[in-house]
Records
---
Amino acid sequence: MYKRNVILDIDVAVELLADHQPASHAAKAAFEKALNRDCQIWLVAACLPTLLERLKQALGARADDTGKETIHSTASSQARDIMQEFLAKVSVLSSHGFDAEAAFESEQPRAALILLAADALADEVEILSKDPALLGADRRVVHPQAYADRANSTSQVENPIPFIDLVQHQHRILPQLEKGIANVFRSGQYIMGPEIQELEKKLAEYTGIEHVICCSSGTDALLLALMAYGVGPGDAILTSTFTFISTAEVISLLGATPVFVDIDPRTFNIDPECLESAIRACKENNQEIYPLPALPEGPAATLEPKGILAVNLFGLPCEYDRVNAIASEHGLFVVEDAAQSFGAQYRGRSACSLADIGCTSFYPSKPLGGYGDGGAVFTGNHEIAERIASIRIHGMGEDQYDNIRIGINARMDTLQAAVLLPKLEIFPRELESRHRVATRYAELLTSHESLQIPTVPEGYRSAWALYCILSNRRDELRDTLASRGVPTAIYYPKPLHLQTAFSHLGYETGDFPVAESTAKQILSLPIHPYLHERDIRWIAKQLAETLAWIQRHPPTGH
């Protein structure tokens, strides 16, 4: 996606909104062109009162001299309505983003204010203005007619598409973000402030789960869940081998043993058939049934299955009806690792509510991401919720100096809650946009027989944290796409059972063939809510041309 910003000066905005003919032709043409280029269009908050007053004057000037009071009243009401409608289409840059007071030291304070606002936008920015004080004073200032007339000169390579755009959504809610952050600064409640409780309440409403405990990261959310069940040495926790290390890391941190399970080749989630085999192998201590971790020799060298840590990979929930049934049969708890799937659904139920405990992450690149680390734990069990809330703050009892159990420091910063609250408001729209991007990819890529594109089973709805394809010539595909300006990533290049951190478990290559094969073929394409249609088509075109080239050039040695 092109990263461009356009700031409207007051004179251009008045012409656009008052519809002065023919003066407004250039303003309209420039505005439409900015929209077609998928620019982020801004008004400066400090200029809004002046803009409203100028708009009232412009609308009132159309009337005859008779009945001035009535006309003025009508123009005032009309101006407010027009402004309100227009503000729904553009973004407002508040003065929290720059030192607005510095502008008033200038001989041309309004011009200086616009330039300071432009400086606050770190990305490519242009200012549409007819003000002589601005035109020629800065290379970023463009007359609307010149902007409308010039040809598009920026190429795709000069403005590469970001793999994940972490800025676009910020621009859409910048005033709300700045207001929320400023409120935290004013209150001084940086730890466990009221925004934390408000966020927990809204997350509970969104997911339909009764208890939500916000915490410091998605990893800590998993750790809190396992600690709530008293997981420790001698316990076996079954989990996927194809995921990020934090899933299994928290098991080892508590002295328990991760028992890895292979994945379904279409969904990349834990395979229920393999899960059943792994549980039986643990209980019978039989490597012939399913690969098990090596244990020290001795009479205590046994694996006692205690729980299942199921991962919703890339935004798609795993098969919870089967997983929960298997757990119930064997007396195990289930923790849902929904770090990548907040917003997903499984058979009408929301991710984070599909197991005994759900855990998610608010890492910036996640579907609902903050501006730092953060996470949350979800449960319908009141007793477990109280236990987790205690463990989150050093095992706190009645107060912070009454410690009733061993806990950890896993509190969420209030600032992260202040960021997540306005982001949660627009999250449903962003989720729909992710679905739009994924649907367009599927439509454009489905004809390529050499690719495996993502599968979403009936009754499921993915949050599309990532869009991952499989190719048996993945590395060539990735290198060629990179040379064409298409960013990609590999999630994940090595399954957990082959990671050095878990080498003491004694797993070997070949133990989990589906995960190992997937790791060699998987490739992630750009996906985020603000990926433009033309960019999706362009990515698909580069992919098609690259695949055609690869098919004409067999691998070396073949």
Note: The two ends are 38 Å apart (CA to CA).
---
Amino acid sequence: MRRSSLLAAAAVAIAAFALYRATLLPGMDFGDTGSFQATVGSSLITPRDGYPLYFALGNLFLWTTKSEPAHALNLASAVQAALACGLIVLVGVELSGSIAAAVAAALLFATSYTFWSQSIIAEVYALHALFVALTLWLVLRWAERPGVGRLTLFFAAYALGFGNHLSMILLAPGFTIFLLASAPRGWRSMFAPRVLALATGCALAGALPYAWNLRAFWLLPAPPHNMFDALLRFWFDVTKVDWRETMVLQVPTAIIGDHVAMYAFDLGQQFGWIGPLLGIAGLVQLARHHWRHAVLMFTLYIANVLFAFSYNVGDTHVFYLPSHLMIALLAAPGLVFAGDLIGRRQLAAALLTAYVAVRAWHDYPALDRSHDDRPTSVLAGLTKGLDDRHAILLTDLNWQLENGLTYFAKDIRPEVAHAGMPAVILYAPTLVADNAAIDRDVMLTSRARSTLAAAYGPLFPTAPDPEVAVPSLAAMVRDLPDGTRYVLCILKPTGELKLEWDEIGRALAAATGGVRVAIPDGDYFAVAGMRGRTPTFALGSNRPFRRSVDLGGVSVEVRMESWLAADTIRRMGFGHVIAARHHTLIVERGVSFAAFDADGQPIRTAYASNIFAPQPRYLIRRRTP
């Protein structure tokens, strides 16, 4: 059975990689992804950067693939995610004793919405899932046949996992209870000097990758005074103390009910109702036959789900991933339970596999980012015509855009000179004068222009740069031919951005031929139709929804895939428009618009009040002598 399990694991890993490779983001992205892509390949990884193992493996992919850093790191996620899926098969076999059930459980997780979306971009969660599955498999193998060798492998893998993500600590309660309960000579044997020495040695070895981060302190302009000072600063940056103080266990009690509803939505998004039901059945099955395994899986699940539930961040959904993994793994013994009820274990596994295939077929267009070049397009527009011989760009952008610009100017357009306005505002007059002296223009983003004006008043007159055209939303709609299919979505924007309702009204009037469309007060709104005609579909809601509509013989699905009360960051987008099984529009907070043809191919796409909206640029006028 061991060989068959390995072959099944390899087959699932290959299938998962093929899926992720086909939908892989080809290049750069904004946010943390952009920061990772800009950092990979560097020999200097600061403690604030963290994730030394992740970057070491990223450097390996960068070296072996010889491709653009963004693509290499995206590809690394796909490989790591595929390996994680293979390991899930092995864990599922240990839990259920059934290869078919384990394969079905692994495929259930492989095609779950959030994991799939994180497996095709540069993010740390695919590698984290790999280490969660690896440590689970190793500890279960140790329990099956306890020995120093197997215990060493478990300790080593668990320690090494911290080099990727510190949330490995959430596995500690479950693993500790399981080790104590499964020790063949009683729980006291786990505190024998030999075992403690082994655990300590593995922990120290696992911490070694962070020496890379610690070393960076002495290469910075203001190095630490001594090792103690360095360690204090290291701990502050690596564990992000300043973030944890405002985010961990900081969910206001007034929105706990909303978080419960969000979690229910999230579970449905990943698995439908089948996954949680099978997870419960699996826990019952383990409790009946392997109570220690049941305690292990429940403790791992509850520790991770409670942490994510109480973590007050803008991308809570990704922190639920380890708990999703536990549900998927419990589905394996759950299938055995269900199979025993109907007297056909293989049939139960086959039915879940078919269910997974249908869900994957339906979600594939929405999760396909193989043609997503929006981040590159936004920054190409902002930096159009710039080079360091003739101009410098001063920016004050949303942090997600800033991270993307760092990568863009480093690896795509290295001739673009840029600096953050907050970093130069104190000596802005000197900077402007020095650039003027060498006949170099100073360009500004919108917020950088406002910051400069607030600090220095009329000292620096500015004018819009005619090189960068920013058409209005209405203009993007107005000149479309009558009868053109379109979808326009309005999602409540983040606090720093505001909806321009007058402009939205003009755009709607242009789309509907003057037909008035009432926009209800809610988080989500979508209108679809044919240009110049009464809309075919209009819906507003305070909860995410999915609706299908026929536009001129084209099947169109509008999918809202976020929970706006909690989500400020969604790497995959906050929703999708799928037309003729084509990923026609990734919906973001603010306004998202697409006009498309009979094949679902976008003719025109426009964004407003979000990070994908075109950015205007301004020029500081030079004073004439």
Note: The chain has a mean pLDDT of 92.
---
Amino acid sequence: MSEQSSWVRYLPPVLWEGDDPAAPFSLSGMLRIFEKLLTGIDDTIPIVHGDHTHDAITIQLDRLHRLYDPWTTPPEFLDWLASWVSFSFPNLWDEYTRRKAIGEIVDIYQYRGLKEGLIRHLDFMAIGARQPRIAIDDGNSVLTIVPDPNRQQHLTALVSQGPSARRDAITHDLVANFEGLTRPSCLALAPDRTLLVGDLGSPGGWTPVVDQHVWQISAEGRYAFAGAQPIPHPIGPSGWNLLSPVAIAIDSASPWNAYVLDLTVFGGSPALFQLASPDFPSANVIATGGTLGTVWPVAMTWDTNGHLLILDRGAPASAGGPAAPFIIDVTLSPFAVTTTPLPATVIEPLALIVPPAGDVIVADAGPQGTVSPGNLVRIDRSNPAAWTAVALLPSAVGPGNPLVQPTAIVEDTAGIYFVLDGGLKAHLPQLDPALSSTPFLRQIAQPAAIYRVDTTTAPPAITQISMDGDLVSPTDMVFDGRTLIVTDRGEYSDPGLAGPVLRVWRATDHEFGVVVHFPASLAPSTQERAQIIRSIQEAINAYTPTEITCTMVYGV
């Protein structure tokens, strides 16, 4: 170092006058070392580190902000940067996913303590090309939304309080203090604006035991109460032996009557009941399955001529065979039954309505073993000998037709419908032999949602009006002209459940469920699915207060 350091001019001249920078030790030579380290001045002695030289510290300082940016920090700094936001990476994540995670986690933290925050957190933990469908079941049984075609909105819980349970002092089993909505399966809107909700109760063998009922709910979400100590009280006579209420219809008489189609009672035969308002003192059997000719009824509605129409799958779903759907036309006075097969183009119908124009609109889930969309089908009944079917939506999967599992349909105005969609195909695991052994692996697994379908445009315009994550397993929907009301039964797929399912979390306090489905088209390996489940479980444990219990159901 024969050149004098420029930094000596900042010192009193008495210290450096006559100083020889080429001497073995000099003040100028010492300052030149620091000047080299800090500013990178050129000289004949470069700073070498292994097989490379370092930029000047001033340049490093100018770049320091890049260390705190997840998209520009070196890969070796990612774990360190994640620790700044109290986060650690699952082993499966690649570099891109890790960078993306650091950039998004702080925004998710802002929703901590809310259901939306947990949904976003769990979706975030399962990030990647093989994204599963994650739904949080917090017991919301009846939900409402005022549809806005211009934006998506969250649904609001109308009924979230289910049964109350306690632990028996002797057996330590969970028993119900009082019952309430647990797994609602069907819904009807009465003339007095109350709701009648059919409920499946708890699955067989699960605790606490909650029986099947039909509940009357006010427009404000309150149960009808009865008893010396008022508790929620279902309609109908004491001891009414329901097993699986599948559909409810209400007539326009005064006083009005409710008609309940129960799937299997009286030794295995479905039955159609009539109950008279306002007190519903008895449940009169109008017809049994043998009289109606039902095989697997899935929905019921009123025809414009005052008949009851029952939509039947035509083959037992439990057997996993293809459907052969038909419609049963029931005249009540005098009693008469007429059965008409649906056209062969209707594959797996789940719901129907009869608009004022008189044609039947069927919500068809389509083939269950393939990646194909559902559809809305108009049934022309002008020729009683041969009904014809016209699909209203495109037959290809995509933005033009996002329907997968349309479980309910209502009409807004002529040609404009609201469709409730469960998002899963096959809608019953046993209907897809290739995947039936793993019920949480489906051909399609996307969030349940409500869509507005406008068939008056060409092509039809389909808009999602609900937010992802608000629904788990929606079953039915009604429309009062302003508000959509939806029932959600939660996830209880009896065959092949995985995870520590010990009880019905909807019937116990301070519990919720997390349900994970994997789409078969992006199905990761069993090991990778297990890793995703572990990541989700770790996120739940970190996110959930200790006094709250979470039960997971999933497929690995």
Note: The chain has eight helices and 35 strands.
---
Amino acid sequence: MSVPHDITIVIPVADRPKHLAHCLNSLLELKQRYPYAGRVSALVVEDSKQPENIIRQQQLVAGIQQQGLPAHHLSFADQQSVLSMLPDSLCKQLSGVFGDGQSFAHKGASISRNIACLWLSRQMNGKSAQLIWFVDSDQVFCVNKISQQGEVEEPLDYFNELDRIFTSSSVQMLTGKVVGDPPVSPAVMAGNFLADVIDFFIELRACEPRQQCIFHAARRHADDAAYHDMAELFGFHEKQGFRYQCTLSGAHDHATCLADFAAGLNYFFDGVHPTRRSFYQALPLADSLVAARTVYTGNYIFTQQCLAYFIPFADLRLRMAGPTLGRIIKAELGEQFISANLPMLHGRIVDSLGQAEFRAGIERGESRIDLADEYTRQYFGDVMLFSMEKLTAENYLTASVSVADISAVVHEVEAQLHARYSLKHKQINDKLDRLSALFCQPVNWWQQDGQLATARHHCLQFIANMQHNFGEHARGWRLINDESQRQSRRLAIVNALVEYPAQRLAWQQATEILQS
């Protein structure tokens, strides 16, 4: 009889104590519901800036230890300690992997994951049957299902299922997905969300405010990247016609439905997609195992041998780091890299706050939300991803590819993406004009019912923020149209790709030092 794997769950966290508490509590509940013979432990990797959040997160780790779950808070001192074990020359070579080794607050999830892998390389040396499971702090260890009572949350038997997969096969890395809120940025969801909002308001205008709400047909599951404006880039078909499904229960009218819908509209800027929410679809696990090409960085599991991989290009702080890593692993591991129907539930919003606790790349004012940094990180992250996809197809990882050839690929990919983003930008602005026109037309809805004044305010605030972030003069749009900015970013991507093979060798040396 085989010995069950020990599983270490790694949770990078940046100023999200409320999210982290929810995540850790769900882990304890999972352990209680599905006993597991192997050892399960948690490693919380600190990346916060606010001292009070760091203290609270330390307390949360201590709390789950007291409840019987082994856990460690990887403090800034711990992180500095593991890096100090490496020669200065090696640290300099790996600065693109874990930064300058001095600044640990808000260094980014990719750098946090890489430092955690170094720490684990030292802790796990010589131990067998080890699995490392990376998750995000805004996720919980369960899935959502549609029932007659609405949306319900239930845990899956993750640990035993993962142990069976890694025991009975040669799999080295497995990635799940997420259900609930999409794992992508609002930067690439604006077009289809605007289309759904327009359809909702057109249908609503034909209804009476005090008529019984009609938006309660069976929910439609948003699968196959239905939330993504450019799903075709990833091999999926564009999905249209997602009718808003009211989340209220009990008897209520259209005015109440609208007030609820409007109150959540601006959650979109935190990454929520109210009309295209995904739900768990039951499927025999064995039937769900397929070759993978994308790492969902909030839900991937691997053996100790895969500590040889790090999140590449972490210092560039681009989005799409997981898919980029996935293309590398697919090229090298082949069938040993798989996807399985073991998603986690993803929730962007903390109910008590009415927004996300912290998200890098978002500037939030009293009424204005600015996504310019996230928009540019998404755009150039796509450039990196599809450049890597093209290069791996050309044996970049095993053959010597010239700087000129890498540069040519990056320029070609960026030009193609710029044309695609330009088309989507025009389509988004056409939809914004249409939505604005709906609110300018005389209607009796708003005047007839003073209760809806707040709803109208939320709607107008949403339109204003959409125009600010996706309109003709949006700062993010200007940045990816600025030729000097594009040239600088392309050069940084080319240099990172050129340096990557040497970084792989330096990483191997670093892990060998830590394991010696």
Note: The chain is about 45% helix and 10% strand.
